[in-house]
Amino acid sequence: MSARKDLYPGFAQHWIDTGRVTIYARVGGTGLPLLLLHGYPQTHVCWHKIAPELARRFTLVIPDLRGYGASSAPLGDAQHEVYSKRAMAEDCIALMRALGHVQFTAVGHDRGARVAYRLALDHPEVLERLVILDILPTAEVWARMTWQSAIKSYHWSFLAQPAPIPETLIAAAPAVYVEHTLKSWTRAKSHDCFAPEALAHYRTMLDRPERIHAVCEDYRAGATCDREADEADRRAKRKIVCPTLVLWSSDYLVASKGAPDPLAVWREWASDVEGREIVSGHFLAEENPEATLAALLQFLDRTAEGCN
Questions:
Q1: Arithmetic mean of pLDDT, 173-177
Q2: C-alpha angle with apex 117: 23 to 74, nearest 5 degrees?
Q3: What counts of helices (H) and strands (E) characterise the chain?
Q4: Would you name the residues annotated as active-site residues?
Q5: What is the mean pLDDT of the chain?
Q6: In this structure, are residues 86 and 118 in contact, taking their beta carbons and an 8 Å threshold?
Q7: Closest CA to 140 of 156, 128, 129
Q8: Which of 5, 47, 174, 286 has the smallest CB count inside 10 Å?
Q9: Strand partners, 223
Q10: Which long-range contacts (CB under 8 A, 24 or more apart) does 181-184 make?
């Protein structure tokens, strides 16, 4: 961390031992607890443009998911449960409890959003509110896969291939792979939306074999146990019960012809859900931080109002 610029000046650093992994997190601000979960191929750094304003109203807890950034990257298992979103959600509960937070609100983007909604389904008692950025439920993605989405989201099937094929191929040029992924998912198809200091963090995200293995296991879990957990919830007619906000990008999630209406999909999974589109590529908090922040505050401030 010391070799790259600190994008959260004044925020404390924590390494929390959950008993299974060590989770790295930045903590700062004052107010009700707000957990911010990053996606792929990024780290906790992705929230740096909107964190200062959020920290004026909330106590922010901004971790690296297991396998990412400065958190532990354990070896995967045959069933891929080590990197299941269920296991990552349990990491979040352990992290928040270690910091003194029994109930909290979670905001997740990409893989972090998958952890956040699994947290809401498995542990409804802990979440006050939930915000989901630019995803559909994992089971929905696999069930709705078309040739267009398969090409655009090729990484879903590529990273889920058995080890060590994707690990070996990515290891040949990890920075090139990360840079291509980031660029191709933006609205402008460039790196201009990323602060140079943040891009420096992302370029080194897969600089060690255990990190490459971790992200592949993350996606292998998505193809197996994560999908199966979603399907079990759907069969049981289990829904997210806390108030939920869904934000989606104009130029990634719904860019393909015939793409589903995200809000309509999430209404099948959550009992109290609202949402809106943000003009952006996939990286809402960095490509359009102003609109993303405004939408978040409009929704999240209701939590603070309810506790006054």
A1: 97
A2: 30
A3: 14, 8
A4: 110, 282
A5: 96
A6: yes
A7: 156
A8: 5
A9: none
A10: 181/41, 181/155, 182/41, 182/283
Residue 162 · residue 141 · CB < 8 Å? no
- What DSSP state is assigned to residue 276? E
Amino acid at 150: A
**pTM higher than 0.90, yes or no?**
yes
Is-contact 240 270, C-beta < 8 A? yes
What ranges in the chain are assigned the alpha helix state H? 51-54, 85-98, 111-122, 138-143, 147-152, 155-159, 165-171, 174-184, 196-203, 209-223, 225-235, 262-266, 284-287, 289-306
pLDDT of residue 256: 74
CA 261 – CA 171 distance, rounded (Å): 37
CA 257/CA 302 separation, integer angstroms: 35
Which amino acid, one-letter code, is at 211? R
Q: What gap in Å lies between CA 123 and CA 102, rounded to an integer?
A: 11
Name the band, by pLDDT with cuts 50, 70 and 90, for residue 47: very high
Give me the amino acid identity at 37: L
- Of 105, 131, 125, the residue nearest 266 (C-alpha): 131
Cβ neighbours around 38 below 10 Å, total: 25
Question: Among residues 54, 23, 6, which one has the least CA distance to residue 296?
Answer: 54
| Strand-pair partners of 109 | 133
